[in-house]
Design brief:
Blueprint: H1 3-24, H2 44-71, H3 76-105, E1 110-115, E2 119-125, H4 134-144, E3 151-156
Parallel strand pairs: 2-3
Antiparallel strand pairs: 1-2
Helix pairs in contact: 2-3, 3-4
Length: 157
């Protein structure tokens, strides 16, 4: 066959296939309305601190659950130790909440503190237009923990 005939048949076939394809596409596109929910923009900083607080609460719940589960199969002496651990965990939870509240009272927008046996880590975000010095935050935290914890760490976001 001639090259011109092959090219003509190819172009004609392509045109035929495309015209059949376009004939079956619905006119006007998609006329169905889209069901979408408009949500407010998410503040990534708020989300970060909410996740951090949730992680802290989940950790405390897990620890308390472990202690309470081990209470059932323990001797009286072991129960006394476990009850002491439960009490310490609850004190840490109260102290963390207290530190959070005191630092928030300084005008800090978001605060989540994490306390271990030797460290208090205070994660905070001041927000726009707030100028609280780290010295004031440190003083407030040290005063709240009654100088029991010697290693206080401030983490600004």
């Amino acid at each position: 066959m001639n090259k011109h005939v092959v090219a003509f048949i190819s172009v004609f076939t392509l045109g035929l296939v495309l015209s059949v394809y376009y004939a079956f596409i619905p006119k006007g596109g998609n006329d169905k309305p889209v069901n979408a929910t408009v949500t407010a923009p998410v503040d990534p900083t708020k989300s970060y601190f909410n996740d951090l607080a949730k992680m802290r609460e989940d950790n405390h719940s897990k620890n308390l659950g472990t202690y309470e589960a081990s209470l059932q199969d323990s001797t009286e002496q072991e129960k006394a130790v476990i009850l002491q651990k439960i009490e310490e965990e609850q004190k840490v939870m109260l102290l963390e909440n207290s530190v959070d509240q005191k630092v928030t009272d300084l005008g800090i927008m978001y605060v989540v503190s994490l306390i271990t046996s030797d460290r208090c880590t205070v994660n905070y975000y001041q927000g726009e237009g707030t100028e609280v010095s780290e010295k004031d935050i440190m003083y407030t935290v040290m005063k709240e923990v009654n100088d029991q914890i010697f290693n206080v760490e401030l983490v600004a976001r």
